[in-house]
TrEMBL record:
The lineage of its organism: Bacteria, Pseudomonadati, Pseudomonadota, Betaproteobacteria, Burkholderiales. The keyword Isomerase applies. Belongs to the aspartate/glutamate racemases family. It comes from Hydrogenophaga taeniospiralis CCUG 15921. PROSITE patterns: ASP_GLU_RACEMASE_1. This is Aspartate racemase.
Amino acid sequence: MATVDFLRKLTQATPASCDQEHIPLVVHFSSQTPDRSDALSGVGPSPLPALIESALMIQRSGARGLVIPCNTAHAWYDDVASAIHIPVLHIVDAAVEQLPPALRGQPVGLLATSGTLNSGIYAARHPEIHWVLPSAHVVDLFVMPAIRCVKSDDMTRASQLLDAAVYSLVEQGARAIVLGCTELPLARSDRNLRVPLIDATDALAHMAVRWALSGLPPASEHMKGL
């Protein structure tokens, strides 16, 4: 669902007036990749071999850039990027770019998997941001169940859980919140809009479009592919 959501947002972000002006894509669904959060918690196998295999497959297909619509997988970003010779866009950079300028110096909440939070990839990539993180209780009671509900297509329950998680970070002083798991934007509803919510999936889609079209005419000829 997260990858399908990313593809929809990528298509909507592309300034195309006909089929031929859209960005050529190679999409590799690798649902058998070991769970990233389990690996980071030390209770599951590493996904790195599967991630590298997927990246190499996409590179061999002729793609000239790579995006990974999974926040937690970016804990292995350096290893994946060093295994291939095409650029890999970073979802954390994309999400931070979307922060409203007026809120850059304000506390920013982060809702993500336990693996993403424990890996610290957001704070490590952008230490200048004052990150507000959910407690382990909020992650276990609301965030991870919301993600599981999205995966099982129970969107009503997912939205209720996400709303509770958003409220907890607002109570901690967050002035904006990054939805740092690509399942969470699918649970977004009007109830969640207590503060600006930054959709990391949408941010990555817009970054990918800008990269693919950079320095190129709007027509499809010579377009870079993802």
